[in-house]
């Protein structure tokens, strides 16, 4: 039977520097990036779907067509008459990325406004992926709706995966961000933080401290990403260490974490072999950071 990997969040218009002074228009967003790479990495027994809200304008249609062409299912996506999609621009300094956003009134902020549509989308999936950005863009009431629906889906047997992907700028206060991230971890089976973000937000001194904080919230498997450095996974009390192979000629680290998530999950969901899955995540991320923009074709290694 075909299984479904559903990713939930915001896809934006992306302006990615090409290295020539020009920008390439694309579509991206952390959860869409993970869906894109999951589509490449998961085996034929899997469908990949995306859940968000978009507008009914030409740009929103183009975004959905982009996903359709990539083989990502769009049938649950909400289409709102009075909104459009957000936009972000990548700024690069020695290959390390930062972002400028125009997304404060984007359609995706309404993704949890229709409880029935949300429940229908979640009910169609065996694995559900969401991030700290997914919850950051929602009103407090809609955030509760989403977490409640995820909890229900989990009780019905779905595996829930959460990447905290901390973006302090999207939150009113650091405390609200921290509380929401822990609440999201509590409904999750796998949490995949990035150490530099979590250390800054929570004051963690070590990767072990980051992993333990989520384990204390009840998360069975925590995978702590750490850029080029040694990383760890904490699997029901047991620590696994892994060091990614060095990557030369890093061009743009956008979506390193998102592609790592996809490579890791595709391998782990299939094999439950943690060392193998960590290596698969790092191998995919290593390819992605040698190209511009969030989405590259991992086969041909061209920007999408
Ligand atoms: N400079 C790098 N060299 C080698 N691998 C890297 C590098 N940067 C990122 N990666 C790979 O990408 C993964 C995620 O990177 P990280 O920077 O921790 O995530 P994020 O992009 O979410 O901040 C790492 O675990 C590693 O496998
Ligand atoms: O910030 C957002 O809202 C985005 O979604 C923009 C980016 O595409 C991802 O955030 C990249 O994520 P990293 O894997 O951490 O590089």
From TrEMBL:
EC number: 2.7.1.45
Record-annotated Carbohydrate kinase PfkB domain positions: 7-294
Annotated Gene Ontology cellular component terms: cytosol
Source species, domain of life: Bacteria
Keyword Kinase: yes
Keywords for this protein: Kinase, Transferase
Statement: the UniProt record of this protein carries the keyword Repeat: no
Gene Ontology MF, one: 2-dehydro-3-deoxygluconokinase activity
GO biological process: D-galacturonate catabolic process; D-glucuronate catabolic process; DNA damage response
Family: Belongs to the carbohydrate kinase PfkB family.
Full protein name: Sugar kinase, ribokinase family
Gene source species: Hoeflea phototrophica (strain DSM 17068 / NCIMB 14078 / DFL-43)
